[in-house]
Amino acid sequence: MEKHPKPVLFVLMFITLFSDQPVLSLDFVFNGFNSTDVLLYGNSDIDSGILKLTNETTNVIGRAFYRSRIPTKTPNSSHVLPFSTSFVFSMAPSRNKGILPGHGIVFVFMPNTDINGTSSQHLGFLNLTNNGDPNNHVFGVEFDVFSNQEFEDIDGNHVGIDINSLKSEVSHKAGYYDDDEEQAFEEVRLNDGKNYQVWIDYADSVLNVTMAPVGIKRPKHPLIYVPLNLSDVFEDEMYVGFTSSTGTLVQSHRVSAWSFSNSNFRLSESLITDGLPSFTVPETPFHRHRSFISGVTVGSFLILALIAMFSLLLINRERRRARERAAMEDWEFEYWPHKMTYQEIDAATNRFSDENVIGFGGNGKIYKGILQGGTEIAVKQVSHENDGMRAFLAEISSLGRLKHRSLVSLKGWCKKEKGTFMLIYDYMENGSVTPPTRIRPGYESEVSH
């Protein structure tokens, strides 16, 4: 862990006269902590200048207070002294998988430091037996990452004002108002391990709370701004500090720097926020996420399955072609490029519907058809019986060689099982399917070979 800057402590206590009443003023800045700066209770500890309220231990409380009580009221008066404090905190979930994070940190004023009887389930702040008791004389600003419906929490990531109770008087979703984005609200995740700076000011019975990620200048617009009279809550002297806890929900809670004053509201500017250690949990590399690994596994399986299926289709198609070629006669190889599939012709003629019959030839019916793509054709059936096969071969032998205005072009041929053959011509409206051997006398010179 990177070491924190050497602790710097400024403490100034002096007595002034105001309306004949002595007033004690207190100012301190801790840029890092040592054991003489704060009182530690429960699970709290100091490690390399960082105040650790809790670690990854279940069901513990950690508290840390300024080393003595501080004046919070004008002596012999109900007037509450103003105060301004700022601190940097971070909360990080456990690195152990399967452990849910919780609970949070509370900045507190308390009349005593005793943690006996305090429940670790409730931020180390109060317990159910004294919750809501006005004799508690406790005030806190909570940074809570657990939504407890029993205390009407607004969500599992909020800031709340607590007075003698675990139920917040006022609460707001954690975040800040960005001055550079026209006061747009930017939500933050309190326990993402990042360092957040908090500013809490109380004066003239008004409390405001502001927060932002470390490195961002204090936003002009506070997160919480509420009239609040603490005269019945504060005693003449109080302990000020932090409390936190874990239950079955576990995370670490740390404070890296802290300033406090009841006379100088600009003392927070003395906090050093550069070079603070980060406690963010390293993100799992994308390629090691379970979802990524599962996706790659499933995707690879599907790709292999598709390759296998495609290969099988190719093999079956080649086998089918091999069987077809094995059953082919010699003349078929010669005119193979002009062969059309029976399925194609069957679809074009609407399964050789009687409605598509446009005539009769010497060896069978002639059908009109439309190929996929819109080309109109005429399909002439040729029987294998008698001279049908001879006429069929004679006609396809002229493929591509004869052109005449009185003749329609022969596009190709088709063979169906059981010896049925078909000749496919371009369709000519009001024309005829005239075999190219029937050229009328006098047109030989117009025939192009």
Automatic annotation (TrEMBL):
GO terms for biological process: defense response; response to other organism. It is a single-pass type I membrane protein. Keywords: ATP-binding, Cell membrane, Glycoprotein, Kinase, Lectin, Membrane, Nucleotide-binding, Receptor, Serine/threonine-protein kinase, Signal, Transferase, Transmembrane, Transmembrane helix. It is an enzyme of class 2 (transferase). The chain crosses the membrane at residues 292-315. Its main location: membrane. One of its GO terms (molecular function) is protein serine/threonine kinase activity. InterPro entries: ConA-like_dom_sf, Kinase-like_dom_sf, L-type_Lectin-RKs, Legume_lectin_dom, Prot_kinase_dom, Protein_kinase_ATP_BS, Ser-Thr/Tyr_kinase_cat_dom. Residues 352-449 form the Protein kinase domain. It catalyses: L-threonyl-[protein] + ATP = O-phospho-L-threonyl-[protein] + ADP + H(+); L-seryl-[protein] + ATP = O-phospho-L-seryl-[protein] + ADP + H(+). ATP binds at residue 380. Its EC number is 2.7.11.1. The keyword ATP-binding applies. It is found in: Cell membrane; Membrane. CDD domains: lectin_legume_LecRK_Arcelin_ConA. SUPFAM superfamilies: Concanavalin A-like lectins/glucanases, Protein kinase-like (PK-like). It holds the Pfam family PK_Tyr_Ser-Thr. In the N-terminal section; belongs to the leguminous lectin family. This is non-specific serine/threonine protein kinase. It comes from Hibiscus syriacus (Rose of Sharon).
